């Protein structure tokens, strides 16, 4: 099976600094990885994704890095803002089975 | 456009009671999912339906049953509720960006307490 884990349950960063949230996965056959953001009282929302044929993908203020050798991915948020405060999840989609597996989540706190 | 709608939003049950959580999506998505969210445990997949007419077990299926009623609706049933099933339940549907990639759209969650 697949398991996904996040390295830190909570991350506190100063407003304006960059944030890095890490994630590890277990199945080397996994080929599609996704990051979600969950604000308080809401369902998770898609942020950015990356396929295994890429090492890096950039969005607006966010970058996802994938290291297949050590089965690790990270989400980088540039110039962190108060609105970035939320719980962040990494997920793996197993296209053969349609399973969509989430990690345990990291709570990002932005300090003013 | 409502997206994914879950009912009820809140429910309190006594141990041993049964109930059904309803989920409907209006985005014409083929695949639908049920998750539970507990503090420190992230989102755990209970059951999913890759397409109308199929359902499969996820990571934590024990104590639950599902029905894919049609393309729009996917319900989750607790036959005999236990305190360990106290959780927030999320339904989601999958939008395929490509054949092998996709983004989940989530409902707002159903908070269930079992006494």
Kindly estimate the percentage of residues of chain B that lie in beta strands according to DSSP.
over 45%
Query: Any idea what the radius of gyration of chain B is?
Result: 14 Å
**Which stretches of chain A of 5+ consecutive residues score pLDDT under 50?**
none
Shape of chain B: globular
- Relative strand content of chain A: over 45%
Query: Describe the biggest sheet of chain A?
Result: 6 strands, mixed
Q: Biggest β-sheet of chain B, characterized?
A: 7 strands, mixed
Number of distinct helices of chain B? 0
Termini gap of chain B: 36 Å
The string of secondary-structure elements of chain B, in order, is EEEEEEEEEEE
Low-confidence parts of chain B: none
Task: State the helical fraction of chain A.
Answer: under 10%
- Total beta-strand segments of chain A: 11
| H/E element sequence of chain A | EEEEEEEEEEE
Structural summary, described in words:
The complex is a heterodimer of chains A (112) and B (115). Helix content of chain A is 0%, strand content 56%. Chain A has strands at 4-6, 10-14, 19-25, 32-38, 45-51, 56-58, 62-67, 72-77, 86-94, 99-102, 106-111. In chain A, the strands form two sheets. In chain A, strands 2, 4, 5, 9, 10 and 11 form a six-stranded mixed beta sheet that branches. Chain B is globular. By secondary structure, chain B is mostly beta strands. Chain B has strands at residues 4-7, 10-13, 19-25, 31-38, 42-49, 56-57, 64-68, 74-78, 87-98, 101-106, 110-114. The interface between A and B is medium-sized, with 28 and 29 residues.
């Amino acid at each position: 099976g697949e398991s996904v884990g996040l390295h830190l349950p909570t991350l506190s960063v100063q407003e304006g600094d960059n944030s890095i949230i890490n994630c590890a996965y277990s199945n080397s056959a996994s080929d599609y990885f996704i990051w979600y953001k969950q604000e308080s009282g809401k369902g998770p929302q898609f942020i950015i994704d990356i396929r295994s044929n890429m090492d890096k993908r950039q969005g607006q203020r966010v970058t996802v890095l994938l290291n297949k050798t050590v089965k690790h991915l990270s989400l980088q948020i540039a110039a962190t803002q108060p609105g970035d405060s939320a719980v962040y999840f990494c997920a793996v989609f197993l296209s053969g089975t349609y399973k969509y597996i989430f990690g345990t989540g990291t709570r990002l706190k932005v300090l003013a | 456009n409502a997206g994914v709608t879950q009912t009820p939003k809140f429910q309190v049950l006594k141990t041993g009671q049964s109930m059904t959580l309803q989920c409907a999506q209006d985005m014409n998505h083929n695949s639908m999912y049920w998750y539970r969210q507990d503090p420190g445990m992230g989102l755990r997949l209970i059951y999913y339906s890759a397409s109308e007419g199929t359902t499969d077990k996820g990571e934590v299926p024990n104590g639950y049953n599902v029905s894919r009623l049609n393309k729009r609706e996917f319900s989750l049933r607790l036959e005999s509720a236990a305190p360990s099933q106290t959780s927030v339940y999320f339904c989601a549907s999958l939008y395929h960006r490509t054949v092998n990639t996709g983004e989940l759209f989530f409902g707002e969650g159903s908070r269930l307490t079992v006494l």
